[in-house]
Amino acid sequence: MQQLLTRLQQHGIRFSDPRLLELALTHRSFVNERGDHPYPSLASNERLEFLGDAVLNAAAGVWLYQHYPTYSERDLTTRRSALVRTSTLARFARELELGQAVRLSRGEQIHRLHERDTLLADAFEAVLGAIFLDQGFAAVQQFIEPFLQSKMARIAAGEIEPDYRTRLQEVVQGLHGIQPTYTMLAAEGPAHERLFTMEVLMAERSLGIGQGRTKQIAAQAAAKVALTTLAAEGLA
């Protein structure tokens, strides 16, 4: 924890209430395993993750709007999606070495859950939520800006992953003026190896089914199938 505090200080973050950072790094498996948790009312980092996700989307949106005045709404949406997706946040977390600080149950440690993109991305969002509660939105903006800059530089150099969901939304809206909808069909396997199955629909029509280790990845896979289906019909 002390090493992480030092790294955060290098980014200009000094917690007034270190327990918020402790909470941000507490996985639900740790809470479930230990009935003697010193702050039982704090529980796991899931609520902070929810808050951090909202704060991150706002901070990334504001930053893009201010720094890329010639971008269209579509450009801004595409870039924001690339900035806040799981793989990007996991990379940010690895730069901070967050995985080493996350508190897990002994079983999850054995399964090396702290190395997985989903856990790292969730922890990064939870830390943003903690920073927001401790120091406010301006501190989150200051903290996240170097990460956003580095990712945008990689995008400019040609490193950008396809965003099938955004592309499908554009196609479906163009065809029918509606948005595609996603439904989770299944979530199988143990918590550390969950496999999600998602279906994407256009009104009542099923366009594709995809699987992945997170709902986001599964939805992207389903959207990719849908685009292939629509392209075969000359619609995409």
Distance between the termini: 49 Å
What is the CA-based Rg, rounded? 19 Å
Helix content class = 55-70%
Fold-level CATH name of the largest domain:
Ribonuclease iii, N-terminal Endonuclease Domain, Chain A
Shape: globular
Provide the spatial order of strands within the biggest beta sheet.
1-2-3
What is the number of helices?
11
Tally the structural domains: 2
Kindly provide the name of the CATH class of the largest domain: Mainly Alpha
- Return the structural class: mainly alpha
Uncertain stretches of 5 or more adjacent residues = none
So, CATH architecture of the largest domain?
Orthogonal Bundle
Order of helices and strands: HHHHHHHHHHEEEH
Query: What profile does the largest beta sheet have?
Result: 3 strands, antiparallel
Strand content is 5-15%
CATH H level of the largest domain: which superfamily? Ribonuclease III domain
Got a strand count? 3
Overall pLDDT metric: 86
Relevant terms:
Ribonuclease iii, N-terminal Endonuclease Domain, Chain A, mainly alpha, globular, single chain, about 60% helix, 11 helices, three-stranded antiparallel sheet, 3 strands, about 240 residues, Double Stranded RNA Binding Domain
Question: Could you outline the blueprint of secondary structure elements for this entry?
Answer:
Blueprint: H1 2-10, H2 18-24, H3 28-33, H4 46-67, H5 73-84, H6 86-96, H7 106-110, H8 117-135, H9 137-156, H10 164-176, E1 181-188, E2 195-202, E3 205-212, H11 215-232
Antiparallel strand pairs: 1-2, 2-3
